[in-house]
Amino acid sequence: MTKRNSVNQIVDFLDLTVLASETRIQREVFGYDRNTSKDPNKKYADMLRRGWWKKLYQRIEIRVPGLKSRIFYFRGSVAEMENLIANKSGSVKAFLLENDY
Question: Predicted confidence band at 99 (pLDDT cuts at 50, 70, 90)?
Fold first, then answer.
């Protein structure tokens, strides 16, 4: 059983997702929406970074016109992530725009 509000929940989510923004992870894994909540997101942001520092997943900065998010997290290598996206959408930017990040 995965511990509630843990880095392991993020890992489990990223195993099922090719690429996810910090906002999407917080919303879908923890039910926290920093755009509507009055509570700070420090707890969840620190948890994301803790897993990244432990090298449980990677993050990449991608600037896409029309998207607020620019930091995205993923499991595996950059090449694996890009290959998965290329098979689905052709490019990382197209994938991000299609998947409403």
Answer: confident
